[in-house]
């Protein structure tokens, strides 16, 4: 057995419930590898697990994405060897750890064009963008789309990728500084949603036509207004709850507002097979490797300070991506 340090929580609550404690890990079994982490991604979904919004058995580890190097390989593993650089972004939960044993088929090899910190910062967020704009609602050239939290980790990746696809992005942000950041990453129109009526602005920008799709990782604060930004038969994609869960909705409301579509997706259902996972990762690696999408690791914290990192994330004090360093 090997002793490593990991962040765990024994009860749900605020960031203060996170503990940096020793855990024992063994050798990998059949189909498994042991990964020594070099960088760990911080995501809003981590706070949902910690708070109990997404319940799980306790005590528990936390975190869904990381990059690192394989240091041991179990029986039957093909295509991965000791010393290989790998990354993952769909869990299983427990990435906030110096090392861990996990199933080999959840990992993807890292190309030389992608550094470890970049990979840890982008796997979950980048593959989220990939399925949102390339598969769930394939955005076409000439479309105008609304993307909430355009200066966040997912938003900055999306703005760059959408611009590359030939789309016009309207992005909501929380401050003039974040508006400037979003514009620098390809967001054509920025809206300070706390100070402006974002519905009126979207209608003004689109000359009353609305947008065919809204991507919403914010939730409660913008959900109702987002429905009024959609064109007839538009798609409302609510994929996160940064401001809290969205209110209950009657299906009849979707009818009344223009035969709208509503979906609440998650990445794991779009990477459910090994083929889907590898395809999503390779699509992401391609645009990052070619410099089309640049990943901004704007904050790093020691792994032991994960509680402060989550505090800053929830307090909207971070921009772009944040990485924890073991």
UniProtKB/TrEMBL annotation:
* Molecular function per GO: mRNA 3'-UTR AU-rich region binding; NADPH binding; quinone reductase (NADPH) activity; zinc ion binding
Q: Which Gene3D superfamilies match?
A: Medium-chain alcohol dehydrogenases, catalytic domain, NAD(P)-binding Rossmann-like Domain
GO CC field: cytosol
- Note the superkingdom of the native organism: Bacteria
| Pfam families linked to this entry | ADH_N (PF08240), ADH_zinc_N (PF00107)
| Keywords from the named record | NADP, Oxidoreductase
Oxidoreductase as a keyword of this entry, yes or no, is yes
Designated name of the protein: Quinone oxidoreductase
């Amino acid at each position: 057995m090997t002793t490593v340090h990991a962040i765990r929580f024994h009860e749900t609550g605020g960031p203060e419930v996170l503990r940096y404690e020793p855990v024992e890990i063994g050798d990998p079994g059949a189909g498994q590898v042991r990964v020594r982490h070099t960088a760990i991604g911080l995501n809003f979904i981590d706070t949902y697990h910690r708070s109990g919004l997404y319940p799980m058995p306790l005590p528990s580890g936390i975190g869904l994405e990381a990059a690192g190097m394989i240091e041991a390989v179990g029986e039957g593993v093909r295509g991965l060897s000791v010393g290989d650089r790998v990354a993952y972004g769909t869990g299983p939960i427990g990435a906030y750890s110096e090392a861990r044993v996990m199933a080999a088929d959840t990992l993807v090899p890292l190309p030389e064009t992608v550094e470890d910190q970049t990979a840890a910062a982008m796997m979950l967020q980048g593959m989220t963008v990939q399925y949102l704009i390339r598969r769930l609602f394939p955005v076409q050239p000439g479309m105008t789309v609304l993307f909430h939290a355009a200066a966040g980790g997912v938003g900055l990746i999306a703005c760059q990728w959408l611009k590359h696809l030939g789309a016009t992005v309207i992005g909501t942000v929380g401050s003039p500084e974040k508006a400037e950041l979003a514009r620098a990453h390809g967001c054509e129109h920025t809206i300070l949603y706390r100070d402006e009526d974002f519905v009126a602005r979207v209608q003004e920008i689109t000359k009353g036509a609305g947008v065919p799709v809204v991507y919403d990782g914010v939730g409660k604060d913008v959900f109702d207004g987002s429905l009024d930004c959609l064109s007839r038969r538009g798609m409302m994609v609510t994929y996160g709850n940064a401001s809290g869960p969205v209110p209950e909705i009657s299906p009849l409301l979707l009818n009344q507002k223009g035969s709208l579509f509503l979906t609440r997706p998650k990445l794991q259902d779009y990477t459910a097979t090994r083929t889907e996972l590898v395809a999503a990762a390779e699509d992401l690696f391609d645009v990052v490797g070619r410099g089309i999408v640049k990943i901004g690791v704007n904050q790093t914290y020691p792994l032991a300070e994960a509680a402060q990192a989550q505090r800053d994330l929830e307090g909207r004090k971070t921009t772009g991506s944040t990485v924890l360093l073991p």
